[in-house]
Amino acid sequence: MNVEITVSSFPVSDQWSPFGQEPAGPPAGPNWAPPPAAASEPPANLSRRALREAQAVQAGQVKEQKQANRRRPLAVALIVSLVALVGVVGFVVGKPIVEALTKPKEPPPIVDFEGPGTGQASITIQLGDPGSAIAEKLVEAGVIASTAPFITAFTNAGDKANSIQPGVCAGLRKEMSAAAALEALLQPDACVAISFIVPEGKRAEEVYQIIGEAIAKSELPLDADQALIDQTASERADAVRQAADPAAIGLPPEANGMIEGWLEPKGYQFDVHTAPVEILSQMVAGTVEQLEALEVPRERWLETVIVASIVEMEARRLEDRPKLARVIYNRLDKGSLLQMDSTVAYGVGRFDGKLATTDAERENANPYNTYKNAGLPVGAITNPSPASLEAAVNPAAGAWVFVCVVNPETGELEFNETAEGHAASVEKWKQWEREHGG
Predict the structure, then answer these.
(1) Contact between residue 317 and residue 361 where contact means Cβ atoms under 8 Å apart
(2) What percent of the chain has pLDDT over 90?
(3) What is the mean pLDDT of residues 109-136?
């Protein structure tokens, strides 16, 4: 029996590959399929050196593959993070822009209302308030929309705007135009208050009259008869006088119960419902505050107020006041009589403003006669100004013991250390009197 064996021959490459042998081409036959991939092994017949090189190459490729496998998740994570960061930045930056573009536009602020307004409103204007302060109060009360239009109208009104009176201005409305608000404030009876000014050197009785008149004017209409005004003012002055109780108005014990000298002279403004006792209390408190500010010891309060009141009446010029205070202290130190005509006139109840006194007046026995009584009078003779209080606390340096007015018209005084110098100054005064028909 004959068996025929056919052997197919395949060409074999004479080049070895570390990744396994590769056939030069596919074998013939329709049913052929490549064998499963297997790890290549280097031929066994290689030299030791070649074998080590082949194994090194193979190990390096495996390592590179593992590193690549490890880097791939990191790269993916980095890309995802970058995408997220870009999204967050875009949201943060873009959100305000989108909101600004999509937000509905707000209407422009109202600068000025139109017309006379509605409802009721009021403000209180203080003495000396400028136009800007009045404008701010009007805005706060809802009378006008903003300050600028009112300030412009106030400025354009010129001197007319200065006629606005301090006080409670109750005739206003809500949402008025700036022009309408200004016009309302310019009305004579627009604002009501107890407003008055106490000039420097006014006596307590004169202050009562000033306050009484201010109260009367705050109560009566502008067109009130003058006789009614005078009568009402007199009645209100009596009420103020009766309210001048030392304890009720806070008069310090150092005043010995005498209100003269303790009513601070300046401008005042009070609500129309303010009681006279409250008005006087504030005036007394003002004088006490001045003494405290000048750091006058309490035991010297009365002396300071009395000296300041004499300085106020005797020295009209500010530059003369510290010198006159020094004359008073020098005469007191020497034990000399003060011989101040202003105190004599006060003692006899003469308040015509003339300092010269008669022989009869100088002989009158009263506690204010410094021609008869040594030392200071028992109390002040007027309500002194801050300048006179300052002079009494800080008198000028000098040895003067005499003072004489040489020009009654200007109030010029001459100060002397000797009787001879004083006599010469008296002659100057007499000469002025002769030249002016005195």
Answers:
(1) no
(2) 66
(3) 91
Q: What is the count of structural domains for the chain?
A: 3
In terms of domains, do 170 and 258 share one? no
307 and 389 part of one domain: yes
Is 38 within a domain?
no
Q: What is the pLDDT of residues 288-346, one digit of tens each?
A: 999 999 999 999 999 999 999 999 999 999 999 999 999 999 999 999 999 999 999 99
Answer yes or no: are the C-beta atoms of 202 and 382 closer than 8 Å: yes
Q: Is residue 2 a part of any domain in this protein?
A: no
68 belongs to a structural domain: no
Owning domain of residue 326: 296-438
304 and 284 fall within a common domain: no
- 428 shares a domain with 303: yes
Spatial separation of the C-alpha atoms in residues 347 and 340, rounded to whole Å = 11
What's the CATH code of the domain at 145? Answer: 3.30.1490.480
Residue 129 placed within a domain: yes
268/306 same-domain check:
no
Per-residue pLDDT tens over the stretch 34-82: 555 444 555 555 566 656 665 655 655 555 555 555 555 655 556 656 6
**pLDDT band at 15, cuts 50/70/90?**
very low
